[in-house]
Amino acid sequence: MKHFALKSKNVIINDEMKPAIIEVKDELIFAIHGYEHELSCEIKDFGSLVIMPGLVDSHVHINEPGRTEWEGFNTATQAAAAGGITTLVDMPLNCIPVTTTKAAFQEKLEAVHDKLWVDCGFWGGVIPQNIGDLDELLNAGVLGVKSFLIDSGITEFPNVEAKDIRAAMPILAKHDVPYLIHAELDCGGFNDVVISDKYNSFLESRPKKWENDAIALMVEMARESKAKGDNCKVHIVHLSSDEALDTIEKAKKEGLRFTAETCPHYLTIASENIPDGKTLFKCCPPIRDNKNREHLWQAITDGRLDFIVSDHSPCTPELKHIDTGDIEKAWGGISALQFGLPLIWSEAKERGFSLVDITKLMSSKTAKFAGLDRIKGQIATGFHADFLIFNPDHRYEITNEMIKHRHNITPYAGRWVTGQVEHTFVRGHHVYQQDQFINEPIGKPLLKGKL
C-alpha cells in the first residue's frame, strides 16, 4: 500500500489556488486537508511551488507500431512526463497499421506493453472503407474517432467525404463519442502556388478558406445529425484560421455539440517571424500571421475555442529536410510535446491568465472531452493521484539537449520561456524529477468502458 501526502502553499483545487495537503493512498487521492493538518504518513513539502493536476493532452501522434523511427511510446510518454502531462490520447495515424479496425487497435495495445511512462488513451479512425467496422472498433475501447477532410499524407488513411460522414455519425452518436475532424478542404485554385524556401509561399498554398469551408461543412453535417435526433459530437482539431471562429460560435449557440481546439504553435508563433527555409515550422494547417494569433487568444479568452493541446506530430530529421530547407517536401508537424505548459504560460500570464485558467484549458476540459473526467483532470478525492509540481517563475532557454522525445529537434530551440515542471506524479507514482526519470514505466492504457 502506497500512502503519502504532498504539501504546498499553492495547490490548484476547485478552480482556486490555496494552501493544502493532498493525501494519497493506492494511486488515488484519498483526502484533501488544510495546510496545517497532521498526518502519520510521509509528507513531501514543496514549499511555494505550485501543485497542479497533471495535464491531459488529447492530441498526440506516437506512430507506434510501424513508424517507430519517427516516435514511440517510450520516448513520447517520457517527453509527456517531463512536460507535466500525466495522460495523453494517441492519434490513429501515422502508425502502421492505422487504428481503423479492432485488429489494428489490438496490435497497438500490444505495442504499448512496458513502454508507458504516463497513462494513455487512444482515438480510432474513420475512413471510407471502415464504416461497417466502427461498432466493433468503438466496442474495443477507443475513446472516439478522427477523420481527415483532405489528404492526410498517409495513403492508409484516406480522407472522408460528406456521404461517409453521414454514414458514420449515427454510429458515433450511439456510442456518445466525439468525432474529431482535420478540417481542411482543398478548394482548388491554389495548386499552382510554387512552394519555395519562403515560408509565405507555403502559407499561400493552404489558405484560411480551406479551413473555413471545411468547418462550414462540418456545421452542416452536425445540423443534419441533430435534425435526425442523433446530435453527434463534432470536434475541430488544431484550429488555425481566425475566420472560422464566428462559424464555431454560431454552431455552439444553435445547440450543436460542437467544440474546437488550438495548439501552442498557433498561439506562440507568428508567420512573419518564421525564417525562410526553416522546415521545422511546417505544419498543416499552417501557422498564420500575428493578427490571426491574437484573434485565437481572444477566442481562448471568451470560450469560442475550448482547450489547448500539443498536436505533437514528429518524424525523422531526414523527413523534415532540415539541411535543404525544402518546405514543400518536408513532413508537416510540430515536435514540442514537453514544452506546451511553459510555452503557453509564458504568453498567457502576460495576458492576465492565471494558472487556474491554464489548468482548465490543458487539464480539466481536455479530460472531459476525452471522457476521462471522472478520474483525470482535477485534484479531487477519488481521482487518480496525477500531479505536476510547477515553478511558475523560472526562466530558461529551450535547447535541443533537453528534448525527451525521440529526435532532438523542435522549432522552439533557442526560445526563452517562463515556468518549469519540477516533478510529475502518475497515479501516485513519482515518475519524473528535475530532468530525471524515476523507476520504471507505470502508465496504463485507458479504454472506454474499462475506466
UniProtKB/TrEMBL annotation:
Top-level EC class: hydrolase
A Pfam family: Amidohydro_1
Swiss-Prot/TrEMBL cofactor(s): Zn(2+)
Pathway of action: Nitrogen metabolism; (S)-allantoin degradation; allantoate from (S)-allantoin: step 1/1
Cross-referenced InterPro entries: Allantoinase (IPR017593), Amidohydro-rel (IPR006680), DHOase/Allantoinase_Hydrolase (IPR050138), Dihydroorotase_CS (IPR002195), DNase_TatD-rel_CS (IPR018228), Metal-dep_hydrolase_composite (IPR011059), Metal_Hydrolase (IPR032466)
Keywords: Hydrolase, Metal-binding, Zinc
Assembly notes: Homotetramer.
Family of this protein: Belongs to the metallo-dependent hydrolases superfamily. Allantoinase family.
Protein's UniProt name: allantoinase
